[in-house]
Amino acid sequence: MLNFGFRKRKKQKEKIEDYYKILGTRANAGPEKIREKYMEKVRAFPPETHPEEFQAVRRAYETLRDPVKRKQYDLQRKYGDKIEKIMERVWMYLYFKDFKKAEELLNEVKNMDPDNLSIHLMLANVALFQNDMEGFYRRMDTVMDMAKEDEKDAVIAIKIKMLMEVERFEEALDVLERDKVGIKDMWQYKQMRASILGELGRYNDLWNLLQEMIPSLESQQAKDIDIFIAWINTAIELTKWGEISKIQNRIRKLWNTVEDEDDRQMIREDLTWEMEGYVEAARFREAQIFVDLLCYMDPKNHELRERKKEIERTAKLDMELERMARDQEIFPVVYVEAMKLFFRTYASKEMLDSFMDSLPHDIMKDFAHMDEEIAGSILRVKKKYPMVYKTFQKEWEEIFKIRTEGLNREARRRLR
Q1: pTM of structure
Q2: Fold for domain 17-65?
Q3: Count of CB atoms within 10 A of residue 133's CB?
Q4: How many angstroms separate the CA atoms of 416 and 409, rounded?
Q5: What is the per-residue pLDDT across 84-132, written as a single tens digit (0 to 9) for each?
């Protein structure tokens, strides 16, 4: 899938993986064999019961099914049997960030096989990990000079990918524009540019670029689901909610033209991945967009329908909380309490901690003992935000009881 940088899940560093081994096939396997092995692994490791194994299989297939990505991957791992074992030690040093030892070992390997592009690419990567930008570009220039004519596109893409992996996105964009003249495949150029623009949060530019990438109804294929998903995600970031239904309709039309069951399975998996990413980030309104599409594609799936109900309900709760945030009559302490209850129930501890860290604690401390105002706001929540109140009714009742215990008769009368 295209990586357009939308911040849903916490980003993790890419693992060093043997994609052919993960799929249980050889490096000379053709596209049909790659697909066959992928489907075997998906059946063996479904996402519901084996999420980590499934994601490894997914990463492998997403790379090996794409001829361009596969070429880049192969170019980085062409070691040959005689140095494969040594490279395993290099990977270990890199994993533990012992870059000096990794570089020493790589230089030994380079002396054994001086014309091996993969070794020079690894040395460039090690330079980049150490912020040695001069060394990185010098080594990448060496790789470019050594590469065959039909490998140069892949070398440029690898250089940009390396820069993106260390979050040098502006630099990656500069390199892409500078090396554009050497890229023969303009579709590959647009894919890379889209990925970088997404990472930089330049969503207006990304939106315009995607309009050029959207296929016609006559030419669309299953693999174009990546573009449609990026289109939706960009619309979300730009709050173009009015565009969402149009994009959903395009995806439905795509679905209706795809007959191959393996392709249909891939489309469902891609949409499920996006949906779960938004759920994980507690962005339920966005998750609802994708679960709607999944229910269209699999209308008899009872478990999916129940999931849709759950997401829809939580999306409504989330929207009430957004309205609460703009309500000047809701006391700040009560809004914060509502958000804490929401995050504890529907999000991660990390998200809760991030929310709490963002608060002006000195000011909140001054508000903390204003019992009458807090109790009054809870009554307003009950009246104006019924879902927020009912979802956490037990907690609100307990807080209200505590806050009203010390109030005098006049204060209690004002709360009625």
Answers
A1: 0.82
A2: Helix Hairpins (1.10.287)
A3: 13
A4: 11
A5: 778 888 888 988 999 999 999 999 889 888 888 889 999 999 999 999 9
